[in-house]
Design a protein that fits this description.
751 residues; mainly alpha; two-stranded antiparallel sheet; 2 strands
């Protein structure tokens, strides 16, 4: 029986409907097309995408299992992680690909939303209006323009597909030309499809848990399923029971996803901020947030990436309560004549409930992204409101145009991190997170005074938050004031003893101060506290600290762990190579230094190390080539010039021309005041090969005079001096010399 006042949609979409769906998708793409030039932002994009260790590995079955079995950054959203992983495979770290994938998902959601509403209501005009509002509303900029918010666009698409499957499920039995058995089979098929899409939505973002309740709303209107007579009004108990039982599998899935999400967030500490809030604060903040979201739906101004939680009862919370009561009263008053008002209002309220703040997660009071799905309810309330056809079309077009203009303006604030935080500071008050975020951006661009001003403002606003103190420590470390940096890292740890980044960054500064043992303690603590990111970095720092304390084997193990987690980390490979040279393992050292060079680290230290390892392995020509490349990067750098001069002067078959070049190289180092015993020894050998044995004797005698005669080097130089006096130049197999353990020390300990 076809319910009264409800028109059954045709069994197939018309070409015009498909064309409208494509057109709506193209509007979304055109509106967001500038996003291809946007950068990643430092707010979550670095953690979620750029430095996410899961995304660096190949996308194989092990990574699929990891996505499902291991929560990351307080979220269990395996399909979202796999989606971001696929982007990483396809686009690397090019932001354009990641952003445009979000745009494509959003555009597809807009098209499917139109088709689903058209299928279930047979009202093409209002359905198009709702889909266009969804496409162009400024509140959706955060969900689409923020690469890390893939969970919104991906789960949103599965939400729309679930609605489409449900619309077909409802209409499957209404095809009179089909046998009853075929209709039942089709109905079961569409319900199975609904379950699949809903499950995929939950695996993308658990906010879609409210879908079963929204489908119940659609049962009331426009499906008219809650009364057997098809008349709008209070649902019949039997019809309501059937509708609820029908959705029990969906409700079970939603309950399981909710339980997992709460467990993960509680375990990760994401809900710790809410533990400090009294219930009265959370309730009144929720009411005020409903008011804010409702107003922003119609007047979307002063939008920002972060709205700080005031942690007190909002002064205007009663306005939210009054507005909610008034809206519900009007919707109930017209529940039979204009049921879209009640359905749209409850859609808005129900879909916002998981993120309204009754269970507080994070430090934000509200967020634009939370309106990605609830906005559909508001648009339904407007789209189906009766008015003259011309006025309806004109006002609808005007609304879409105005919303599009505001969205384009808002989109510009997401171009990069600095623009994002500048905007947040400009349109909000007491925004400690934006102040700290802007300070980081200013610090990275070398604007240290401005950075310090903003980070101190963040501390003033929220003195109990440790992150700005860590940023201040980073600022002093960058300005080469390590003692001041230590002071601020320790201040952060007094506020939050388990803060992993404070421990890690303090450890790094302690390494620079030569306090390797203290650094190890903090780095080990950071490893225990760090839940998801930075393990490779911590292993690398531990390698440096352990090498500094002389625990070379342990240092090698830490570097190996770092490279296992991040095989393309050139700096770690280089430092491990230098350490292996120090441990007289030239073959392993050569392999690691080659990795560093292949991964883009072109430095004089790496070229010197490759020269040393090749020399130790008897590859004299290769060693000479690398020493020359080091000098091409830094002419006159005496560690490379000394080693090259020694090889040229002492290799078998060295010519007089080799000796002359060696003399020139060695003289340059000695004339710069670096007249160490080793350099004098090299200069003497070079003079001998150039045919000037008298000069070789003079220089060698000088080297012997300042050498420890009882040392092995002193004895070797004496033997060479005896040879020069006997009229012989010195020839030997290539030798290697110790290399500093890290690049940062290479220039401070020249050879």
């Amino acid at each position: 029986m076809t319910p009264a006042n409800h028109t059954t949609a045709p069994s197939r979409y018309t070409p015009a409907e498909l064309l409208v769906a494509v057109g709506i998708a193209l509007v979304a793409v055109a509106l967001y097309w500038p996003i291809r030039h946007h950068a990643f932002v430092s707010y979550d994009d670095v953690v979620y995408i750029v430095e996410n260790p899961q995304l660096r590995a190949p996308l194989d079955w092990a990574r699929v299992w990891q996505a499902f079995s291991t929560p990351y950054e307080s979220n269990w959203i395996p399909l979202t992680w796999l989606s971001l992983h696929l982007d990483r495979v396809l686009y690397g770290l090019n932001p354009a690909g990641h952003h445009l994938t979000n745009v494509a998902l959003h555009a597809a959601s807009c098209a499917v939303l139109f088709l689903a509403l058209t299928r279930i209501t047979a009202a093409r005009g209002p359905s198009a209006f709702v889909a266009l509002v969804f496409a162009v509303h400024p509140l959706h900029v955060e969900s689409v323009a923020w690469a890390s918010e893939r969970k919104d666009t991906l789960s949103g698409l599965f939400w729309m597909l679930s609605m489409l499957a449900y619309a077909h499920y409802l209409q499957a039995p209404q095809a009179p030309q089909s046998p009853q058995a075929n209709r039942a089979t089709a109905r079961r098929g569409w319900y199975a499809t609904l379950l699949v899409f809903f499950t995929m939505g939950l695996l993308s973002k658990p906010m879609v848990v409210t879908l079963p309740l929204v489908l119940l709303l659609l049962d009331y209107w426009p499906a008219h399923r809650l009364r057997t007579d098809g008349v709008l009004g209070l649902p019949e108990r039997a019809a309501l029971r059937r509708a609820i039982v029908e959705k029990l599998p969906l409700i079970a899935l939603a309950a399981a996803a909710s339980a997992i999400t709460l467990a993960v967030q509680r375990e990760s500490g994401a809900m710790s901020h809410g533990d400090l809030l009294p219930l009265a604060v959370r309730i009144t903040t929720a009411l005020d947030s409903y008011r804010w979201y409702a107003v922003a739906s119609f007047w979307p101004t002063d939008l920002a990436v972060f709205y700080p939680h005031l942690l007190t009862v909002p002064g205007q919370w009663w306005m939210g309560a009054l507005l909610a009561a008034a809206a519900l009263g009007v919707a109930l008053r017209f529940a039979t004549s204009q049921p879209h008002l009640l359905v749209g209002l409850l859609w808005f309220a129900v879909t916002l409930t998981p993120v309204i703040g009754l269970i507080q997660a994070g430090m934000q009071a509200r967020a634009d992204r939370y309106m990605y799905l609830p906005l559909i309810g508001v648009a339904i309330m407007v789209g189906w409101t009766r008015m003259p056809r011309g006025l309806q079309a004109g006002s609808g077009i005007l609304a879409i145009v105005l919303l599009s203009l505001v969205t384009r303006s808002q989109l510009s604030h997401w171009s990069d991190s600095r623009a994002l935080f500048d905007r947040a500071i400009a349109v909000t008050e007491q925004n400690f997170l934006a102040e700290n975020g802007l300070a980081v951006e200013l610090m990275e661009s070398g604007e240290f005074e401005a950075a310090e001003s903003h980070v101190r403002e963040a501390i003033r606003i929220k003195p109990s938050w440790p992150d700005p103190r860590v940023t201040l420590g980073d600022l002093y470390a960058t300005r080469n004031q390590p003692e001041a940096a230590v002071e601020h890292y320790e201040a952060a740890l007094r506020l939050a003893p388990n803060h992993p980044r404070a421990h890690a960054n303090l450890g790094a500064v302690l390494i620079d101060l030569g306090r390797g043992a203290d650094a190890i303690a903090h780095l080990r603590r950071a490893q225990r506290e760090q839940r998801n990111v930075g393990f490779a970095h911590l292993h690398g720092l531990l390698g440096q600290a352990l090498a500094q304390t002389g625990a070379l084997d342990d240092a090698v193990s830490e570097y190996e762990r770092a490279l296992s987690a991040r095989p393309d980390w050139a700096e770690a490979a280089a430092n491990l190579g230098f350490l292996l040279i120090r441990m007289n393992q030239p073959l392993r050292a050569h392999a690691r230094l080659t990795d560093a060079r292949r991964n883009g680290l072109a430095s004089i230290e790496v070229e010197l190390g490759l020269g040393q390892t090749n020399a130790a392995l008897g590859r004299v020509d290769e060693a000479i080539r690398h020493y020359r490349q080091a000098l091409a990067l830094a002419a006159g750098w005496h560690p490379a010039s000394n080693n090259l001069a020694w090889l040229l002067a002492t290799r078998p078959g060295a010519s007089q021309a080799d000796g002359e070049e060696a003399v020139s190289l060695a003289n340059e180092s000695v004339s710069n005041g670096d007249d160490t015993t080793e350099l004098l020894d090299t200069l003497a050998a070079a003079h001998a090969t150039a045919g000037r044995l008298d000069r070789a004797i003079v220089v060698a005698e000088r080297a012997v005079a300042q050498a420890d005669r009882d040392s092995s080097l002193g004895q070797e130089i004496q033997q060479r001096l005896d040879g020069y006096r006997a009229g012989r130049k010195f020839v030997e197999a290539p030798r290697s010399q110790p290399q500093p353990q890290s690049q940062s020390e290479a220039e401070s300990r020249p050879q």
